Amino acid sequence: MTSRLTFAVPKGRILDEALPVMARAGIVPEDGFHDPANRSLSFATQRADIGLIRVRAFDVATFVAHGAAQAGIVGSDVVEEFDYDDLYAPVDLDIGHCRLSVARLAEDEGVDNGASHLRVATKYPNLTRRHFEAAGVQAECVKLNGAMELAPSLGLARRIVDLVSTGRTLKQNGLVETSRILDISARLIVNRAALKTDPRVAELVAAFRKEAEARRNAEVAA
Questions:
Q1: CA neighbours within 13 Å on the CB side: how many for 181?
Q2: Residue 71, beta-bridge partner list
Q3: In DSSP terms, which residues pair with 6 in a beta bridge?
């Protein structure tokens, strides 16, 4: 009997955009997936040989990199933050667009200019350190998983590095964007070993690539 593939999807902002893309690529979750009262993390799909797990975005990358899931969808921010050797991101799905940016309190303009050391609140310590190192600044990263915008006003850190979409949340918390680290979109990710050994993984890559190209062509034609 052929083993079932596991496809990992993230909770949160990307999922709503990812579901129609997945459907056009041939992965449709069971009805229970859409039930808000359903606390399950694992689901069947219309394909008997593919199961679905719904986990936090950072965990999508970990499950796929370590082979517990063979493929999944996650933001390029997560791919870049972890930089797993066993993770391959072959398809830019062109959804889930946002950016990873540095922000500070609006009234802090000019403060810390020329500083060689900064404390930064973020859930992206690796990307944050690399960004500041390139500018000759040592970043002391304070790891937070949410409520990042509170850190400057409460004195936890003078800077934050976080995802930004419209910038509305920053503005409402008295913050301004000072630099952009990374433009982000959702990617199809696969486990490298699974791609080499299981033809179904290569078929998924081809299906998602075809879907993404069809959408881009339709946008150009429009």
A1: 26
A2: 7, 190
A3: 51
Tell me what percent of the chain is helix, strand and coil, each rounded to the nearest 5.
Answer: 35, 30, 30
Nearest to 92 by CA among 201, 8, 205: 205
pLDDT tens, per residue, the chain with 222 residues: 468 999 999 998 899 999 999 999 999 999 999 998 999 999 999 999 999 999 999 999 999 999 999 999 999 999 999 999 999 999 999 999 999 999 999 988 766 667 789 999 999 999 999 999 999 999 999 999 989 999 999 999 999 999 999 999 999 999 999 999 999 999 999 999 999 999 999 999 999 999 999 998 888 887
Name the one residue in this structure whose structure tokens are 């299981």: 198
- Contact between 164 and 98 under an 8 Å Cβ cutoff? The reply is yes
Q: How far is CA 113 from the centre of its chain?
A: 31
C-alpha to C-alpha distances, 148 to 103, 110, 117, nearest whole angstrom = 10, 21, 19
DSSP assignment letter at 115? -
In the structure encoding, which two tokens stand for residue 81, read together?
A: 């933050």
Tell me the C-alpha to C-alpha distance, in Å, between residue 76 and each of 36, 89, 161: 27, 9, 15
Under 8 Å between Cβ of 9 and 96: no
pTM for this entry:
0.92
Does an H or E element contain 126, and which?
helix 125-134
CA 50, CA 48: separation in Å to the nearest integer? 6
